[in-house]
Structures are given as C-alpha cells and as structure tokens.
Amino acid sequence: MYGRDPWGGPLEINAADSATDDDRSRNLNDFDREALSRPLGETQQSWLLGPSEQKKKKYVDLGCVIVSRKIFVWTVGIILAAGFLVGLITLIVKTVPRHHRPHPPPDNYTVALNKALMFFNAQKSGKLPKHNNVTWRGNSCLNDGKSDSSAVIKDLVGGYYDAGDAIKFNFPKSFAMTMLSWSVIEYSAKYEAAGELNHVKDLIKWGTDYFLKTFNSSADTIDRIAAQVGVGDTSGGPTPNDHYCWMRPEDIDYPRPVYECHSCSDLGAEMAAALASASIVFKDNKAYSQKLVHGARTLFKFARDQRGRYSAGGADAGIFYNSTSYWDEFVWGSAWLYYATGNNSYLQLATAPGLAKHAGAFWGGPDYGVFSWDNKLAGAQLLLSRLRLFLSPGYPYEEILSTFHNQTSIVMCSYLPYFTSFNRTKGGLIQLNHGRPQPLQYVVNAAFLATLFSDYLAAADTPGWYCGPNFYSTDVLRKFAETQIDYILGKNPKGMSYVVGFGNHYPKHVHHRGASIPKNKINYNCKGGWKWRDSSKPNPNTLIGAMVAGPDKHDGFHDVRTNYNYTEPTIAGNAGLVAALVALSGEKTFGIDKNTMFSAVPPMFPTPPPPPAPWKP
User: Which end of the chain lies in a sparser environment, N or C, as judged by fewer CB atoms within 10 Å?
Assistant: First the structure.
C-alpha cells in the first residue's frame, strides 16, 4: 500500500504494519515504560503538559488608584503598628513621673531689678491704677494745675514725685524717663527674661503721659513749659509747702503753685530726649509713638528758639536741680531725635563741632565723664559712638563721631582703678562727685555706661579698647560695673544694702514722707507729721527698691530720717540703678539689641568727600 509522503517521497506501508490493535497497544506500553524511565527536559515537559496554570493576583481599588491587596494590607498594618507604638510611648511619657531640672535662682542683679522698679510705683502722683502694688499709697494731688489760678496749663495731674517730698520737677524726671527708655531699647530681652518688660514700659508711659500735659503737645510751636509743680521753700516760713510740711501726699490740702518757664533750653531739650527715646520703646503703638515724636520735635524747637537755662531764674530749680549748661542737652536731645525720626538735620546738629565744643567735649576738668541729670555729655557721646560702631555713616560725620568715640574711650579709662582721675573709698566706691554727698546716683550711671560700652564693643566683635599704649579687655569694664553695684547691694564695709528691701540689712529710716507716716485713716496735717519725721522708729511702710543717697567718702552711713544726704532716694538715681541692674542681669549671651535703636534710621549711603584742591606748582 502506498501513500504520499508530505516531504515529497513515497510512503510505503508494509503488511506487517497492519497488526491488530492489541499488538500496537502492547508495543506502545513498552515505549511508555521506556520513556518514563528517562527524565524529561524542561522543554519536553512543556510539550507534554502545556502552559502551567498561574495564580491570579488580587487588587484593591481605592478610587483614585488601584494597588495590590498584599501591599495594601502591609501598609495598613505598618501604619496601625506605628500608631500603637507612638500611643504607647506617649502613655509611658505621661504616666511616668518626671523630675524637672529646677530653674536656677535669679541672680542678685535680677532680684534687685525687680525691687528697684517698684520704687517708681511708690512715687506715682495722681489717680493710681488698680494694680499699683504699693498698698500704702493712694490717689493724691488731684488738683495739680487747677489750684494755681495764674497757671495757663491747668491739668497737671499725674507724673512722679521727685524724692522724699511731693514736688514734681520735670528736669530730673525727664532724665529718669530717658534712662529707662534707653535701657529698654538696649536690653528688652533681659527685661523680658526678668518678667519686667511690661512693667517698665508702663512706668515710662506714666511719665511721658504727664510730660504731654505740661505743654501744648498738639502745637508745632510753643512759648512755655510747666517746669515744676509744688514748692520746696526751706526757709522755714509759716506758709505750708512741700518741704515745710511732713504729710502723706494723699493728705495734702494746701495749694501747690505751678512754675512755668519761657526760656528753658535745657529743660526743653531734655524733655524732647525723653519723648523721642520713649517713641522708640513704643514704636509698635504707631499712634502713640507718633504723638511722642511730634511732642519731641515741638519741645526741641522751643529749646533752640528760646535760649536760656531753666534754673537761671533762681527759686527751687536753682536750689535743688540747678542746670549748669544747655549745650549738652542740645547734643543729647538731637541725637535722640535723630534715632527717633531718621531726619539727618538732627544728626547734623548733634555732630556740629561748635555744639560739641560748647558742650565741653574737647576739654577735661574734674567732672569730665560724670554722667548725671545735669550733664549728659558722656551719655550723648556714647550714644553717638553707637552709630559709628554699627552703621559707620562716614563722611561728613566720621571726624566728629570718631572724636566722640575716642572721648568715650577716655571716659571709660577714667573709671578703671589703674588711673587716678577719681578717688575711691577704702571699700572701693568710686568718688565721681569727689567726696560730696549723695554719691550713688553718679556711680550707677557710670556702671550703666561702662557695661553698655562693653556690650557695644562685644556686638562689634571688638575684644577691648586702648587706654594710651595699654589694651584692656571689655571684661575689665564689666568688672568695674559689677564691683560698684555689688558695693551698693551690700559688699561694703558697713555690710549694708543701700537698696531698700534687698538683703537683710538695709536702711529703715528712709527720708520719705509717704513711707514714714502710717496709713491708719488719720490725716496728719502740715505739722502733725513732724512727729513721724523726728521719730527714731523704723518707717512703718517699706519703700521697696529705693536706692538711698549713699555713704560718705569714708564709707560711713547714718540711717537717720532727717539727714537726706544719706537716706533720701530720687527717681533720677533709681533710673540709673535700674539701667545698670538690667545691663548686668541674666546671661551675658543676651547682649544688646543692635537694631531697634535704628528702626527709624534710613539706609546710609555715605557721601564721598570732596576732591582735593587742584595742585599748584
């Protein structure tokens, strides 16, 4: 039998091939056994078995994306496990008792600062705020201005009493407010750390609110300032006044005259400095800050136009707070107005060589470098040195600013014990007023300037300064300030703190009417309070934070109420104390605030100096 081979050849089928089905089946079985006895390759297996059946993956549809169910389960599991772990850790942290590291106790300077500020609360006049925190004080002198029929300015309620009496002197009070504002501008972080920033700002505002009442603050031009309320006649006449009588301010029932001045350059410029510096403190309160700036401009214009010393007319001003010159106030006031406004005309005036010469910047003298309510030159020179150190305005200001900087360096040298500009007591107190009474008010001002200059140099990455050929570290200045303030706080031969309420041993017979008369619902009249003045018993009310006048040149001190040269405090003295304490308080790492002072100063692009004159053969 033939058939066709598909590959082109004959296909022969033999008869032998037509065997029965049983034979073929038997033969196939033999082949199968033989095939099974050999291992099959992978390819052969695929021929025989065909494609393997794969397991179908499962997915989860999340709406915006489709993910593998396995990945989804693992992700959810990890998230749940992490949440459980975080919850467990949080539970452990909240339930396990914690041992907080106690905050270190405040340093002595911070403790004293808290107290020194309280003195201003005790000196407030007028209607007191609810939380004045001086229990023995109340509303007082609510008719100031109105009781003087000759006064043009009628509302003079408020402000501060100057010292242990009830007189309101604008001249030293303006200096006090300027000092407080300066310290806040430089050390607001330290005030904040001490918990006193809002307190000191309230104290400044209490003073500036009163100043705005003492002249026509809405006008651009004025012709008078209410310089003083009350009278301090010490002649012993029968007419009741604030020195003859010994009464609580709350019980004063006699008329209080108002002293107005029409030619008072020193007072006008100092009040301008107070308002201008405060405007920087309150720069975040735009309306109030602008009001202060406007008042400062008006006062300074008055000071420049109406030349004269406020104390030249005699009376109380000449006796208690005599001003020796107004040129230093011109430099001081114009410097503060420049910082408050950024107006170059004030900087041009502050750096005018003629003005500096009249202020005494180029000549020494025994009181050169003594910063006080009377002479602001040392403070003004440091204030303008700040401008050179941090902004370096260059020409045409560089020459005079460099002079101020050099003079400031000389003043700092004079404070050091290596030089003999000023004597010291055996206990180490520098005698800036050359052994005269009431030394501490000058000492605290010098301590503030020294610490501030040290911090200026540190902020300018300058390690020190030269005194002649010798280089001194800024640490030397800080050490000077610390030793002087430590003396005041009790490290002195008497072992007495001259700040009332600080430490265990401090004056108990402070020369102060309100503190020496008990608040017992009895109104003691003018002479009725004399028994409390002359009493040998301690004051019934503690005048917390008051820095008394201080010891004599032999470190001696008499705690006697009738001797004001030892025991009377003043707001000008306490303002310097506050400034020095905040500068020294806390960590040195705080330093000064370099920028706030310049918040109103525009960017400086120094004017190039004029070309040299043409060369002539």
Answer: C
Please report the DSSP string for 537-561 in residue order: SPPSS--TT-B-----TTS-----T
225 vs 291: CA distance, rounded Å = 17
**Residue 38 pLDDT level (bands cut at 50, 70, 90):** low
CA 381 and chain centroid, separation: 20
Q: What is the pLDDT of residues 303-357, one digit of tens each?
A: 999 999 998 876 678 889 999 999 999 999 999 999 999 999 999 999 999 999 9
225 sits in which H/E element: strand 225-229
Res 98: pLDDT = 57
Distance, in Å, from the CA atom of 130 to the CA atom of 125, rounded to the nearest integer, reads 14
CA angle 403, 180, 379 (to 5 degrees): 15
Q: How many residues are listed for the chain in this entry?
A: 617
Provide the whole-model pTM.
0.83
Angle between helices 197-213 and 108-122 (to 10 degrees): 30
Q: Which tokens sit at 518?
A: 């008990």
Tokens of 428: 């180490």
Structure tokens at 403: 């002079």
pLDDT of 32 over the 70 cut: no
Amino acid at 230: G
Domain positions in the chain are 61-94, 108-591
Torsion over CA: 421, 425, 427, 430 (sign): negative
Query: Distance between CA 548 and CA 539 in Å, rounded?
Result: 14
103-149 pLDDT, tens digit per residue, is: 667 899 999 999 999 999 999 999 999 999 999 999 999 999 998 88
Classify 108-591 by CATH class: mainly alpha
Q: How far apart are CA 277 and CA 272, in angstroms?
A: 8
Q: Taken in order 538, 543, 545, 547, is the CA torsion positive or negative? A: negative
3-state secondary structure 238-271: CCCCCCCCCCCHHHCCCCCCEEEECCCHHHHHHH
CA 287/CA 380 separation, integer angstroms? 27
The C-alpha R_g of the chain, in whole angstroms, comes to 43
CA dist., res. 326 & res. 456, Å (int): 27
Q: Is the peptide bond before 396 cis (omega within 30 degrees of 0)?
A: yes
The catalytic site residues sit at 511, 559, 568
Q: What angle do CA 515, 518, 524 make, to 5 degrees?
A: 105
Q: Are 341 and 600 a contacting pair, CB within 8 Å?
A: yes
Tokens of 231: 């009278």
Q: What residue type is assigned to position 193 of the chain?
A: A
Instruction: Quote the tokens at residue 421.
Output: 């500009």
